[in-house]
Specification:
Blueprint lengths: L1 E9 L5 H9 L17 E7 L2 E7 L9 H16 L2 E7 L4 H10 L6 E6 L6 H12 L4 E6 L8 H11 L17 H16 L9 E9 L4 E9 L2 H8 L4 H18 L3 E9 L7 H6 L3
Parallel strand pairs: 1-3, 1-4, 4-5, 5-6, 8-9
Antiparallel strand pairs: 2-3, 7-8
Helix pairs in contact: 6-8
């Protein structure tokens, strides 16, 4: 039986979360066109009769500017330490030298597949040029061009992963999809709606904490706090006469109900915590 940890690394917005969701066949990681959406390491398990693959989506690799970034990069470091195989994901139309510098700095001790993403938006010449560029790199064991969004060549990628994985005993039960608690994904769904509805700094200055998750006979009652930096941001999140927070609640509740396959009563509050991204106590409380 093939078993192993396959961890996805790359720049922000390379498509790591989209790839995780495509490989697992479920939406585990939230996605957004905005960079730095993923803040945690998110594991998803792909189980079959003859294999168990533990995939990890990791935050996009950046130079930390505050403590939250440091926590994000620590989760990347942890993912390096337990990887059996690395997927080095690069947007095929972005700067290859920048991606190469990141991949070289990872100092991988395991085989790596360079995955050229967004091939549907690239010419044949661009794909060939990128393949030639990364094929010459010592960390590159294999190279595959895919479209994670359109699931082009994801089956080929899976076959290649299985070729390179070691044999072993499963780490998790066959029925498990992830090792993260349900309330984590609930908080992420709410945070995703903030990324969809707001622009500029608001999504990056915001986090979500699920304070209550109670399963009742007919529905699940969820209370969550949206944490922001400043009073002005709180006013924007709430909106005129509560319009925006209602919109967040409606969009989030619909998706949470699909995710949990249950009716949901969702209550949202907005709390101001100045400079929470640089406050060790707050970061710990919020799960970072």
């Amino acid at each position: 039986m093939k078993v192993g940890f396959v961890n996805i690394f790359g720049k922000p917005n390379a498509g790591k979360s989209t790839l995780l969701n495509a490989l697992i066949g479920e939406k585990l990681a939230i996605v957004s066109p905005k960079v730095q959406t993923t803040r945690h390491r998110i594991k998803g398990f792909l189980n079959a009769e003859n294999y168990q693959i533990i995939f990890s989506d990791t935050p996009g690799i950046i130079e930390p500017r505050y403590k939250l970034h440091e926590k994000m990069m620590q989760s990347v470091k942890n993912s390096l330490e337990d990887a059996d195989l690395a997927l080095l994901l690069v947007d095929i139309n972005e700067n290859q030298e920048e991606a190469n510098a990141i991949f070289e700095n990872l100092t991988l001790k395991v085989p790596a597949i360079v995955v050229l993403n967004k091939m549907d938006a690239a010419s044949a010449d661009r794909i060939k040029q990128a393949e030639d560029y990364f094929n010459s790199k010592p960390y590159c064991k294999k190279i595959i061009a895919i479209s994670a969004l359109k699931k082009v060549n994801t089956s080929l990628l899976l076959e290649t992963i299985l070729e390179l994985l070691p044999e072993g005993e499963p780490f998790y039960d066959n029925d498990d999809l992830t090792d993260l608690p349900t309330r984590f994904f609930v908080g992420e769904i709410i945070r995703e709606k903030i990324f969809e509805l707001f622009h500029e700094e608001i999504p990056y200055h915001t986090t979500v904490v699920v304070r209550e998750f109670k399963e009742k006979t007919t529905l699940i009652k969820i209370t969550a706090e949206i944490i922001v930096h400043r009073e002005s941001q709180k006013a924007i999140i709430i909106g005129e006469k509560g319009k925006m927070i209602r919109q967040i609640g409606i969009m989030a509740r619909e998706e949470i109900e699909q995710f949990l396959d249950s009716k949901v009563f969702l209550e949202l509050f907005v709390k101001v915590r100045p400079k929470w991204r640089d406050n060790e106590t707050h970061l710990k409380e919020y799960g970072y």
